[in-house]
Amino acid sequence: MNAFANIFPPLELMLEMEPEELAPFVLKHISTLGSINRYNYTLSTNPDLSEYAGGNLRQVQENIMESFAWLERELLVAPSPGQTGEWRILTRKGKKLLEEENFDAYKSEGLLPSDNLHPIIVRKVKPLFLRGDYDTAIFQAFKAVEVMVRRTGKYTKGDYGVSLMRKAFNPTDGKLTNTHSEQSEKQAMSDLFAGAIGLFKNPVSHRDIEGIKPQEAVDYISVANCLLKMVDPDL
């Protein structure tokens, strides 16, 4: 079995991950070996790495080396005693992070494909979802909606939450109200945004929500994704 394919996430996902998101997988790979010379990741003669990367070998190597640099900066790996050169082992801090990482959550990646997601959801929410931090992912998704409404309507930082939604989509004078809609539709839009923020953002901003399943998180995030697309003037 290919050691890289068995440890690292699917290649398409790996290529879009930030260094700190990829770092736990590098840690896990190092832990299976005990220690590693970091330049082993740059060798095109590594058959497992080449098979995993396919035609993206150079990009995969660069992403792993970026993650390695991040691991060193955060003192998650350190020089290996008794070995010269670039050999590294996991530090106590690195081992603790590895124990806390929920690698099984990445198996849910297919539930939240990037194709139809707003760029903000891909950048700020999907990494949290992939780590299994579902309540935070939901919060960040609806926070993104709030920020987009505030930015598009040119409101101040003092405007937030349900009250911001009611102001922005006020059927009479809301800046984001569709003036061509029927009165009932204007009210429905106000209710939709206010209800979504009140139901999905506010509870997870005040407390941890236990027991959220991956598909349930996807359903909530999808609502936020839809609302974002409705108010983003650049789409």
Straight-line N-to-C gap: 43 Å
Strand pairing plus helix content: what structural class?
Answer: mainly alpha
Write out the strand line-up for the largest beta sheet, numbering strands in chain order.
1-3-2
Rounded Rg: 22 Å
Task: Please give the share of residues in helix.
Answer: 55-70%
Any descriptors?
about 240 residues; mainly alpha; Arc Repressor Mutant, subunit A; 2 domains; three-stranded antiparallel β-sheet
Summarize the structure in words.
The chain is mostly helical. It has 2 domains: 3-101, Orthogonal Bundle (Arc Repressor Mutant, subunit A); 111-231, no CATH class. Helix content is 60%, strand content 4%. A hairpin with a 7-residue loop joins strand 2 (77-79) and strand 3 (87-90). Helix 3 (19-33) packs across helix 5 (57-73) and helix 4 (47-53) packs across helix 5.
Could you give the topology of this structure?
Blueprint: H1 3-7, H2 11-15, H3 19-33, E1 36-37, H4 47-53, H5 57-73, E2 77-79, E3 87-90, H6 92-100, H7 119-130, H8 134-153, H9 161-168, H10 183-206, H11 214-231
Helix pairs in contact: 3-5, 3-6, 4-5, 7-8, 8-9, 8-10, 8-11, 9-10
